[in-house]
Amino acid sequence: MHISSGNRVEKQGMRHRSLFILAVALALGAGAFALSGSMTSKPEERANTGTRSVPVTAAEANAQDVPIVLRGLGTVTAFNSVALTSRVEGHVTQITFKEGQYTGDLLIQLDPRPYQAAVNRAKANLLRDEATLANAKIDLARYTELLKDNYTPEPQVATQQTTVSQDEAASQGAEAAISKSTSGICRLATRSGVASKCLPVRVTFF
Fold it and tell me: Which CATH superfamily is domain 112-187 in?
């Protein structure tokens, strides 16, 4: 009786192990089948999404102007440009144009006061030299008359003639200074010879 009960227990244990192994095998098979189904369904979905149709419409061809718009950052420069510089130095007192403005007349005006003062000074020097020259000519005439009667030495007459020549040269120098100062006043205004478009003013400090 003891031996028969041991055989029964052993048979029941083998039966339980067989059922457990069968259950594990079924679970693994079900998992593998589900995984293979999910992997095969994704390419089909991708294939279906890649074959969408694009709508195409037809229209009549017409010839017309098409606007061209260029957007970007940069600097626009003129194809041809001329730099205007003053022939005299001075302080700028007036700028009569703005950037991008078309002009053909006065552009820049310099301060005329220093040049006007130089003209006045040259005129004063001319008056002084002319007065000195006139006095020297009077002395020369008097010495020449005295020389005829031998009342004055000849070297004094020659010296006075030299003085008159020097005063004449001084007068001519004063006249040249007036002309130079007057021409400087005429150059204080910078003008444009032709109608053109003005660019920004560039100031150079010396």
Answer: Helix hairpin bin (1.10.287.470)
